[in-house]
Design brief:
about 190 residues, alpha+beta, 4-stranded antiparallel sheet, 8 strands
Length: about 190
Amino acid sequence: MLIMFTMKKKIFLLFIVHIFLLGCANNPVLLGISELEWTSYSPEKQKSLLASYNQAAKERKKIIKEQGNQKLGNEFLEVTVFDGKVMFPPSFINWQNYKPVKFTIFEGQCSDIAIEHQSDNDSKTKLGVCFYDNVLYLDPIYYDLTKKNGTTTIHFSPLWLTGFTYKGISSSGYVRMNNVTIEIKQREESPNKT
C-alpha cells in the first residue's frame, strides 16, 4: 500500500512538472510576441516558432558558455544606448521610454544587456548584443535562426576609434528599438593588463 501511494505521488509530481514545463515553453513573452499575436497563430506555427526558439537558445547558451572557456580578443566596444523607445514584456504592444544603458562588449562575445523602464523599476527587458568580426549585432529574434545574432547590424567604422554616434536606429527583434541613439567607442585592452 505504501509503495502504491509513493508511486502515485511520483506520477503526480511528474505530471505537475510536465505541465509547468509546457506552460513555460508556450510562453510568447520568451519569444518577444504579444499574447494577442501568439493566439492568432495556428498550433503548427506556434510549434514551429518554439522549435526555432529552442534551437537558437541552445546555440546562444553554447556560445556564451564557450566564451567563459576562451580568451576573448583585446578589442572591445564601449556602447551607450539612449533616446528613442523600446518594447517591454509582457505586452510587446507599445513603445515605451527606458533608462539609458552603457555596456562593454569584447570581440567574439555575445551578451544580454538589461534595460529598465524609465519610470517603472519593476519593468525590465533584455537587449541581445554580439560583436563578431568588427560588426555589432543588436536585438536578435529568438525564434528566427537567420536573425539569431541581431536584426540590426553596425559595421566597423574608423570613427569608432574616437567615438561615433548613430541616430535613428531601429530594430525588429525582441525589444524592437525605435529611433534610438547608439554611441560606440572602440578600445583595446592593454596586453600588460592582468
